[in-house]
């Protein structure tokens, strides 16, 4: 059960970046993922989370970095946690050394300490994206990351079923149909998918559609029931439950936060 409260969120697709500030109580969030790099700083408290089958603890002032589509679950180890996070998309990464971020997906840790960078992230305005400041932050961050040559690792590949979902999430298709289209047996596909992602195919597809919904909330004035149908949820309640599992708040609440800026 989530007890998260988002206090600010701005979306700037033209820059490929979102800036979010939030507060989370001890219940945290169950396993979920994002479709962009999550780069954040703990402003207050201590956050425990699991990502890539490893346990982490991020304390006040620590930075956390989670690759796109990596399922993670988090909770507050203290009574309350405040944090600020950037969601960095491909548009933004192309301005810097994206290869370093790819290498990080194979790194052994998701938490590190860099006080100056943490201070800059903490100072970002969640009502307006300042592109020059964001670009400077990303370049500073890239300088801290290992180069692909230093790590000597191969960029992780998405599961074939993930690739199919990423192509077809807008279509009126169920996860089971996509499983049947793959050349391997159903048992093999389900086993390898859950092992690699940590979610069932149905849960993954629902979360992927919910992730896309935040852009629709920002761009359209359609009702939540209409958005639910557009994203192929059975009804608004189903859409709201999935959305809250990913973001910790309802779509109606997030729309109000986004439009408040």
TrEMBL record:
Keywords (alphabetical) are: DNA-binding, Transcription, Transcription regulation
For this protein, the record's InterPro entries field holds: AraC-bd, AraC_XylS_family_regulators, Homeodomain-like_sf, HTH-like, HTH_AraC, RmlC-like_jellyroll
Query: Pfam families recorded for this chain?
Result: AraC_binding, HTH_18
SUPFAM superfamilies recorded: Homeodomain-like, Regulatory protein AraC
Residue ranges of domain HTH araC/xylS-type in the record: 155-257
Record-given protein name: Helix-turn-helix domain-containing protein
Q: Which organism is it from?
A: Aromatoleum toluvorans
């Amino acid at each position: 059960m989530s007890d998260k409260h988002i206090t600010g969120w701005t979306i700037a697709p033209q820059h490929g970046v979102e800036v979010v500030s939030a507060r989370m109580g001890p219940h945290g969030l169950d396993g979920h993922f994002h479709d962009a790099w999550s780069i954040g700083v703990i402003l207050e408290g201590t956050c425990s989370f699991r990502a890539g089958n490893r346990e982490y603890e991020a304390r006040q002032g620590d930075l956390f970095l989670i690759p796109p589509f990596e399922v993670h679950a988090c909770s507050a180890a203290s009574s309350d946690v405040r944090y600020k996070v950037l969601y960095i998309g491909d548009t933004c990464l192309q301005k810097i050394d994206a290869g370093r971020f790819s290498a990080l997906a194979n790194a052994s840790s998701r938490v590190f300490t860099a006080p100056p960078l943490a201070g800059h992230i903490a100072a970002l305005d969640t009502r307006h994206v300042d592109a020059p400041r964001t670009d400077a932050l990303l370049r500073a961050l890239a300088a801290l990351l290992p180069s692909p040559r230093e790590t000597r690792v191969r960029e992780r590949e998405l599961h074939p079923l993930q690739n199919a979902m990423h192509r077809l999430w807008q279509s009126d298709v169920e996860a089971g149909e996509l499983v049947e289209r793959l050349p391997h047996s159903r048992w093999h596909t389900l086993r390898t998918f859950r092992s690699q992602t940590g979610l069932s195919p149905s849960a993954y597809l629902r979360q992927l559609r919910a992730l896309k919904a935040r852009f629709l909330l920002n761009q359209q004035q359609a009702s939540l029931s209409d958005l639910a149908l557009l994203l192929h949820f059975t009804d608004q309640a189903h859409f709201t439950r999935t959305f809250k599992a990913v973001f910790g708040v309802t779509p109606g609440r997030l729309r109000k936060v986004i439009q408040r800026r």
